Amino acid sequence: MKRSLLLAIVLGAFLTACASNQSTSAKRKYYQDMTAGEKSEYLGGMGYTPAEAVFITVGEGVPPVDTVSPAQAKALAKRAAIADAQRQLASKLYGVKINAKDTVKDAMLRSSVIDARVSGLIKNAAITKQDFKDGLYRVEMELRMGVDTWRDLFSY
In sequence order, what are the residues at sequence separation of 6 or more whose Cβ sits closer than 8 angstroms to the Cβ of residue 127? Predict the structure, then answer.
């Protein structure tokens, strides 16, 4: 009686472990297939590495209040939107340097200063869309770069 009970427990544990192992391998295969599908979707579904990297940013600019004419205000808003899009491209390509300083006195925070800086060279960026609506100038900027150029410049 004790032997058959012990045999039933051992057999049940063995079958549970096998079922759990099948489940784990099925889950692993599902995630591998899903990852492969995402990669092929990212690479255009063709299973190859793209020939160029594309970076897209949207810059926004608001016209200043103290301008001589509406045309000047619109031109300055466009210039601000272009500068904003270029800054975003530089931060994507080169990163952002952050400096922070906190001052504590008598166990209380007195001041907190955060400085963010972006520095980089942006060449051959093209404006793909632009519009001025509701007092806001929006510019979509695109930078295309060959993958080999990307690797040469930014692989560190």
Answer: 82, 85, 139, 140, 141, 142
